[in-house]
Specification:
TIM Barrel; 3-stranded parallel β-sheet
Length: 80
């Protein structure tokens, strides 16, 4: 799990993960930069599996960027 404070940190993070032969990451939803960071990572590093973590609300699962992610890690989801 990775916590990115600024969107501009996403590109160096992705490069470090790929260079380190790590092809999967979870970006925590507890940060304001989550949406743009996930977009950057999935666009620039198509071989990197990117997940959104600590998803707390149904509204967060409906975000427009979610179709580009590979994994979703909800904290707890209940049926409505």
């Amino acid at each position: 799990m990775v916590k990115i404070e600024k969107t501009e940190d996403a590109l160096p993070l992705g490069r470090a993960l790929i260079d380190g032969d790590l092809h999967i990451t979870e970006i925590t939803f507890r940060i304001s930069a989550v949406e743009e960071s996930i977009k950057v990572l999935t666009k620039k590093f198509p071989d990197l599996l990117v997940g959104a973590g600590t998803v707390l609300t149904v509204e967060q699962t409906k975000k427009q960027f979610l179709p580009v992610i590979n994994l979703l890690f909800p904290q707890v989801l209940t049926q409505k």
